[in-house]
Amino acid sequence: MPEPKMSLRKGSKVWAEDRDLAWVPAEAIEFVGKQVRVLTASGKKVLASPEKLFPRDADEEDHGGVDDMTKLTYLNEPGVLYNLQRRYSLNDIYTYTGSILIAVNPFTKLPHLYNVHMMEQYKGAPFGELSPHVFAVADASYRAMMYDNKSQSILVSGESGAGKTETTKLIMQYLTYVGGRAAGDDRTVEQQVLESNPLLEAFGNARTVRNDNSSRFGKFVEIQFDASGRISGAAIRTYLLERSRVVQITDPERNYHCFYQLCASGRDAEKYKLDHPSHFHYLNQSKTFELDGVSSLEEYMKTRRAMDIVGISYEDQEAIFCTLAAILHLGNIEFSPGKEHDSSVIKDQKSSFHMQMAANLFRCDVNLLLATLCTRSIQTREGSIVKALDCNSAVASRDALAKTVYARLFDWLVDNINRSVGQDLNSRVQIGVLDIYGFECFKDNSFEQFCINFANEKLQQHFNEHVFKMEQEEYSKEEINWSYIEFIDNQDVLDLIEKKPIGMIALLDEACMFPKSTHETFSTKLFQNFRAHLRLEKAKFSETDFTISHYAGKVTYHTDTFLDKNRDYVVVEHCNLLSSSKCPFVAGLFPSLPEESSRSSYKFSSVASRFKQQLQALMETLSSTEPHYIRCVKPNSLNRPQKFENLSILHQLRCGGVLEAVRISLAGYPTRRTYSEFIDRFGLLAPELIDGSYEEKAVTENILRKLKLENFQLGRTKVFLRAGQIGILDSRRAEILENAAKRVQRRFQTYISRRDFISTRAAASALQAYCRGCLARKMYAAKRETAAAISIQKYVRSSLLRRSYLKLGSAAIIIQSNIRGFSTRKKFLHGKKHRAATLIQARWRMCKVRLAYQHRQTSIIALQCLWRQKVAKRELRIRKQEANEAGALRLAKSKLEKQLEDFTWRLQLEKRLRVSHEESKLVEISKLQKTVESLNLELDAAKLATINECNKNAVLHSQLEFSMKEKSALERELIGTAELRKENSFLKSALDALEKKNSALELELVKAKKDGIESIEKLQEVEHKCSELQQNVKSLEEKLSLLEDENHVLRQKALSVSPKHSRPGFSKSFSEKYSGALVLHQNDRKPVFESPTPTKLIAPFSHGLSESRRSKLTVERHQENYEFLSRCIKEDLGFKDGKPLAACIIYKCLLHWHAFESERTQIFDFIIEGINEVLKVGDENVTLPYWLSNASALLCLLQRNLRSNGFLTTTTQRSAGSAGLISRVGHGLKSPFKFIGGFEDGISHIEARYPAILFKQQLTACVEKIFGLIRDNLKKELSPLLGSCIQAPKVRVHAGKSSRSPGGVPQQLPSSQWDNIIKFLDSLMSRLRCNHVPSFFIRKLITQVFSFINISLFNSLLLRRECCTFSNGEYVKSGLAELEKWIVCAKEEFAGTSWHELNYIRQAVGFLVIHQKRKKSLEEIMQDLCPALTVRQIYRISTMYWDDKYGTQSVSNEVVAQMREILNRDNQNLTSNSFLLDDDLSIPFSTEDIDIAIPAIDTSDVELPTFLSEYPCAQFLVPHQK
Question: Coiled-coil stretches, from where to where (predicted)?
């Protein structure tokens, strides 16, 4: 039934059909006639009719999906599909649809979802409160069974690979956890049932068109419980085995797995004369013999192991596989027409071989087997008539035998498994888990699919009734009228199939009764009887095929083999033959039949009728139980994680009935919203009603009335809307939001336009002012330029006139000066030439001498360099040899450095000399060049002047040639210097090599120093660790010595007295009679120790032996002591100056009575028992803190007393003789027995510290017990308070005081839940401080309380999606701030590190309330925001988070993908990786901690109780007080 559509408008969010993805999100963009053009998410424009579009809520896409489909705004097919897809992408594989659980196979390990801690969370939790889980369904069924005392059933359905077996395993695992197991059972029921799975799969599963491991039978596992809810047994019941598959299969299907396993078994196959499956008729009807990725041999070994596990003996196993081999050989027997009419015989030698093998394997006579296959005997009055069978009848007889044998073999296996598991016949309640094949629709559908789909129709009817019943319960709980809702089911399809006398099964049985009936006659009769039936159609291209409209869709069936597969003859001859088999196993499968009076040996049995009967029995079993449904979904056909195939999943949802449940919900009230949620979303439709003066129910009704909606219902807490009404509401809401958006846009556009106008006007004014300024400036510039031009002209004219005058005057002066200068220069040049010739001659002579000197000097330097080079090379060879020695490295280095400095200095000096020489040469050359130029000029002048100059020029020419020769000599010298440079470079390279070697040696030296430093540091660390270990060893030795002392004392106490004296009888009677004398008062013992002489010591003792009254007085005093101690324990003595009076008085009494030196511990046991009795009887809130203070004080007093007396120090070995006796007298019991001569060897010397140490251990256990009780009581009181604090309450305020956004939630007022926790903590602190509990214990208690708060809040946050919201984060954060204030007020003395215990919840809440989560990287989240949280916990919060206040999104998809990759990698390594926190139940202190933390107690100043005067034994306290 499609959901009524809302009125479409432009911009409406819809779902559009898609060929590849089934449905895609789209948006309506325009209307074309009666059709709508939509824009899909991929950008594609599609034209569709409005009837094929479904409304979509865009707000839900920002979240990770809803955990219950009924919470969807639009409950329709695409909404369900994409909600599953969103949750699956976040690894949330479980989703509710009401009470139905949908489980999507993740194809990866998720161990954190199935550990013991997770089972503990779901144990007893109300259904639906925590996230969807298979444990929630199992717990709901278990609780319903216990509360209602009614059996339950869990129906697990889905195709193969969807996870049915794993889900069944998890259900049984959880039931084992909550129901326990039988005592002395090595294996749980869960293990026993699961161990039988490989065996049942081998004999009951086969390959079909869609699945490689499809169950061809139904399995119902009953977990049986006793009256106390503990598992007492289990049973496996099978239904509807597909028998026809044994003899007939179609390509590409396969027969049952066991046949292929047996053929691949190697030696076993050879033993049974088996070969490849293609050689057997029952297997080669299909060309598929192997499965991808499956080894038949390995599966055969698994089947063998499963048989061993369930207890099948080796002989029975061999008989089972003999039977299977016989069936295969039986299928290869072929027949040919015999000599007589309508008779048949064995066809050929091959068939004879298979006949012989079948007879041998069945252990029966081969002739009898042939006779039973080829003939039939008919009983008449005259006798038995044997009738021959034709070939077709013989083949049918052969197939009937094969099907009968296999069916009985399968039933035997199931019975054997049940015997192995163990049934409880006295169990009244059980939980059944049904695992049965799902709806099938193939290209070619035959009789098997007809039966399977018939079974699924019956189960779907049961499912529909359950869903409708759940709907009725929901309506009844909300007290709404639902009587007019019509329930549409599939009864018409069931009537079509099974109704008598003209149902399809009845017509099929009738056709099978007549030998000449064919599938054509059956089809004709079928169409004649159901011509007008709406669910039955005739196939288009076939005269005999028919189509049935099932709940999951239309299926076309081919009737070709309907009659053959429905006929199942049980032949009496077959049963008689196999019951007489020599194989006990085969004979056991066919017990002897009673004598029949029938004339025919045929016993016709209809497969369809038997199928119908078994199905009816199953439905009766299910009807007697309360059902729970789990629909398993296989997300893809490749078995890969994070791959979601929409079309396949949509088909599974249809076949699983999930969409049918949606259809039923649509028939009623599919949309349910609490009043607060409804008003949050649709309150803007009537804002005038939201002012706080109306109740939420009235506001909701007024909103619906205002929109003129009808047929809605108002329940106690929810409003129920008919299908399509939520669309109308959303459409109206969208209109209001659109109008509001338009109004906002209009105002905003007005503001923008006005702002632009004002800015444009201001710009125009500024532009005008600028233009006017420019024009004025231009006019001013023109006037100024005119005035400047006139002034310039005036000055130019005057300048020109003055310049012409000056030019004429200067020309006259120049002419005069030139004439005078010419005459003067002529005289000057003549004198200059004379001086120049003289200077050239002097300079040339000087240059010639200097060049000779420089040439000699350079030759000397070159010789020196070559000699030094030779010496250096020789020294280098020597240094290289010395460098090999490690000791000469530093000396060589220093020498080389000195030589290097020397060479460097000499090289620099030589460079300077060469540079100066070259500079002088260059200067001389430049001077010579200038001289040549001047001489050339003078020569030209001299030619014009006089002939004498020519002679001088010739001389100069000869001098020039000589200078050229000098120049060539200089060039040769330059070549020599180049060679010297090469040699210098060679020396430099040698020096560089030496420097490199030196640097390498230096680096090695530095590295060696570093290694030495590191080794020294490591040695220091090792020494430090050794010192720590020595200290630990010392402390352990001290503790070990203490334990050895205690063990020594315990061993001495355990030893019996073995007297060695000549008077053993007397010593024994004496010790038994006067054992109580060890605890005498001090005043009674004074006479014994007053005199040091032995006679005085013995006299009073012997006197005590003669007096019988002494023991009576001792008993009376003991009784009086016990009464006084009991009074001190039972009454509240209070405190004085913070000191617990009861502990002080008890300690002083024990000290005075020398109880710590006694051999007996009766008085200590009496004190501990008295404290335990008071704890049981009194008020825990008062008694526990009071006795925590007293018991800890008494423990500290005892501990310090033992230490001061040396009882806790290590004892040395005691020497024999009198010294040992004196030592024992000084530190022992001070008993008069030790001073009696002759009794020393007869009485064991028991250490006095044993009772005190034992009492200390008892007191320690008592303190730990009281602390644990206080802590557990605090957790019990705190749990309900925390349950209300984890989620923010909905508090509605007046409209005038708070703004309401369409996507947000109302602002929350400070609630009283956190105030209750603060009050609880204040009350706890006051109770503890009133009883003067030491701050050490208060600090530990407060720390553990805050740790429990952290664990409870954090686990609840991770398990409940409604808690992972922005507003809830703000609420919890405000509560944590209140706790922080309380911790600050309580001070560190009492609060300790309580604030740090809240790290997890603080960081989680801080992550919830930060904005712009999408901009945060994973590294920032893990290091800055949530350093204490694991990746799994961050992933859980990120995927469950949704912003109910501002509509912001969670972390980016890249961060989610990174976290998922890390989790997938961790899943392979960790055995347990739960994201929940565990509560620490250990005691957080030791006796030493108490002794160190609690200050010393002075028992001298103690206020005595008023009843002290009634007890003489305690009067010693009074003078001590005074």
Answer: 977-1053
Is 232 a known active-site residue? Answer: no
Q: Is 214 a catalytic residue?
A: yes
Q: 346's torsion region: left (phi>0), alpha (psi -120 to 50) or beta? A: beta
Q: Is the pLDDT of residue 654 over 70?
A: yes
Tell me the one-letter amino acid at 1018: K
Asked whether the bond before 252 is cis by omega within 30 degrees of 0, the reply is: yes
Q: Give Cβ neighbours of residue 799 (< 8 Å, ≥ 6 apart).
A: none
Burial of 908 (0-12, 13-18, 19+ CB in 10 A): exposed
Which candidate in 190, 222, 440, 448 is catalytic?
440
Q: What is the pLDDT of residues 947-996, one digit of tens each?
A: 766 676 677 777 777 878 877 788 888 887 888 888 778 888 878 887 78
Burial pattern 405-417, b for ≥16 Cβ within 10 A else e, equals: bbebbbebbbebb
Distance separating alpha carbons of residues 1116 and 48, to the nearest angstrom: 105
Helix (H, G, I), strand (E, B) or coil at 604: coil
pTM here is 0.61
Picking from 196, 201, 630, the residue whose alpha carbon sits closest to that of residue 431 is 630
Which structure tokens are listed for 582? 């020599």
For this structure, is 438 an active site residue? yes
Known catalytic membership, residue 160: yes
204 has catalytic annotation = no
Is the separation of the CB atoms in 1508 and 1514 below 8 Å? Answer: yes
Q: Determine whether 674 is exposed, middle or buried from the number of CB atoms within 10 Å of its CB (0-12, 13-18, 19+).
A: middle
Catalytic residue among 73, 214, 1183, 1260: 214
Q: How far is CA 186 from CA 191, 192, 193, 196, 728, in A?
A: 10, 10, 14, 16, 62
**How many whole angstroms separate alpha carbon 242 and alpha carbon 407?**
9
Q: What angle do CA 1248, 1252, 1258 make, to 5 degrees?
A: 150
Distance between CA atoms of residues 495 and 457, nearest Å = 11
Name the catalytic one among 161, 331, 656, 715: 161
Of the residues 153, 160, 205, 427, only one is catalytic, namely 160
Active-site residue (options: 211, 416, 456, 646) = 211
DSSP string, 22-84: EEEEEEEEEEETTEEEEEETTS-EEEE-GGG-EE--GGGGGTT--SBGGG-SS-SHHHHHHHH
Average confidence (pLDDT) over 1189-1196: 85
- Annotated binding residues for ATP, written as ranges, equal 158-165
446 has catalytic annotation: no
Question: Catalytic: 161?
Answer: yes
Q: What band does 799 get if pLDDT is binned at 50, 70 and 90?
A: very high
Contact 1141, 1503 (CB under 8 A): yes
